[in-house]
Amino acid sequence: MRIKVVTDKRSGVCGGVSRAIKMIEREICNRNSRDIYVNGELLHNRLEMERLMDSGLKLEEDVEKIRSGVLFIRTHGVSKDVKRLAIENMNQVIDATCPKVSSSQKIIEDHYSSGYQIVIVGKEKHPEVKGLLGYCNFEGICILKNKDIDLIDMKKKTLLIAQTTVASERFEYFASLLKPKISDLKIANTICPFVEKRELELVQFAQEHDIVIFIGGKNSSNTKLMYDRFSAYNKRSYLVENKNEIDFTWFRENDLAGISGSASTPTWQIEEVKKVIEDHFNQ
Q: What does the alpha-carbon distance between residue 120 and residue 188 come to, in Å, rounded to a whole number?
């Protein structure tokens, strides 16, 4: 069978993830006798996490157990309490929080200290949102479904802010819904512009190819958001986490196959999948 495989030249990890990986690699390379930890997945990409852990990174979600080591704050960020505990336990703290998330943390902290009710459009159990809640004494309200509106006190001055990877339609929907209901409403659209731009690029990429193989972590909100968006434009779109999940029966004679990935998928994984497909059909 003859097919042509093309990689998405605009794919690869976002700036925040790239920055975090470089910080980790630099610390591992220059490591002293202290262990290097991250309190949860640095990014939602299992294979990249395995690569970093093979190089010496340790995963420990309970910060209380990390003592006299080096703690990397992951890209999703953490609450102030987590940082404080790590320092009390004699750890060196290296903050790899995505700058976009750090900005959201400051916005929430400033408004909360000024008496604003904090409303976050996002998933309550997502690590980024858990961290954001720590900047308003865990008193923020998370909304994602229509019924969540009932949790909001419409009489209070309110800050409406977004999880950086939430669907823009969801945020805009709640913003338009709350504007006429809350007299003092501040709106902070903190959705990552990289994510929004990539969504549009992926729609175009999907339309240009017969079949699309999209690589990303199954536990990544960003991956699911992007895949759901562009796969509507190409029904022969498949989400895989690694090369072992490829089913060669997906492909047809003379297919133009596109390989792309989410904002947490490094280029090496995209090239690896491309090679596996090409090697199979060139035999």
A: 10
The pLDDT tens digits along the chain (283 residues) read 889 999 999 988 888 888 989 998 888 887 767 899 998 887 778 888 889 999 999 999 899 999 999 999 988 999 999 999 999 999 999 999 999 999 999 999 999 999 999 999 999 999 999 999 999 999 999 999 999 999 999 999 999 999 998 988 999 999 999 999 999 999 999 999 888 888 899 999 999 999 999 999 887 878 888 999 999 999 999 999 999 999 999 999 999 999 999 888 889 999 999 999 999 987 6
C-alpha distances (whole Å) from 6 to each of 70, 76, 122, 233 are 40, 31, 34, 18
The letter for the amino acid at 186 is K
**Residue whose pair of structure tokens reads 């998405």 in the numeric block:** 8
> Rounded to an integer, what distance in angstroms lies between the CA atom of residue 42 and that of residue 52?
9
Active-site position among 27, 41, 48, 128: 128
Structural domains in the chain, CATH included, are: 4-12+194-281 (3.40.1010.20), 15-98 (3.40.50.11270), 100-191 (3.40.1010.20)
Determine how many CB atoms are found less than 10 A away from the CB of residue 206: 24
CA–chain centroid gap for 234, Å, is 23
Q: What is the DSSP letter of 96?
A: -
Q: Which of 216, 264, 263 is nearest to 237 (CA)?
A: 216
Instruction: Report which of 260, 273, 268, 216 is spatially closest to residue 234, judged by C-alpha positions.
Output: 260
Q: Residue 206 contacts by C-beta under 8 Å, 6 or more apart in sequence?
A: 212, 230, 231, 233, 234, 237, 258
Q: Active-site residue 128, yes or no?
A: yes
